[in-house]
Amino acid sequence: MAAVQLAAGLLIFVPLWVSGIRKAPKLSRENLKNLFPLASLHTGAHLTAVLSLGAGAVSFTHIVKAAEPAFSALFAAVLMGQVFAAPVYLTLIPVIAGVAVASMKELAFSWVSFGNAMGSNTFSALRGIYAKKNMGNPQGENMNSANLYAVLTCFGIALLTPIALILEGGKMGAAWTAAVAAYGSQQLLLWHALLSGLYYYSYNEVAFLALSQVHPITHAVGNTIKRVVVIIASVIVFGTTMTPTAIAGSSVAILGTLMYALAKNYYQKKKD
Asked: Hey, which residues does 26 pair with through a beta bridge?
């Protein structure tokens, strides 16, 4: 599923390149080599997120991934030397604490889901930082933020497809039959798989456009606010049950992200 989601993105950016609506990137072998570490982080972030969603409830995965700003803050300090005022970092405590409380009392708790969600946090935070660095020093020609994401998608397809075929190739027939039986319609399953990939690509391309304009931590906080909508929608659509403690924990985590944004903005203005 992870590889299929990435492949759906081809239906968006390839026609744009072929038609000339968007200038196609021009990359040398050296450029591709330099982009490979970033592409690996992108692929890892996507794969672990899909594995987490598959092993647990959608709401649980997004509660855990609400801690992404804390990972971004740590890596920004270590890798970019960007350090903020102490109160800014203190606002990340409720984010981490809220995620911990929500996870401990989550009825759909799964260590596999939790571990992969935390892995996705790590990959996503590192991807955001290195993507931001790349945007400041683009590889090749016509490598704006949208084309950067398109190229990373091509890398992801190339990396994930062989792995998927090796690990799951023999199970694909049975898995597809089971999925069709669960959906009740092969056409509906195909349509939903296609829409999932198109929405995933579109969202992430817009996210990269946003990343080109803001700090990686701010971008991670924006992702966390997005998770409020995803959590609420998943509870309504899938009928996921959340305990009062899980609701309280996730609310505290989300409030912490708002406090972070306000504190960072305040101290940035004070510094300026």
From this structure: 141
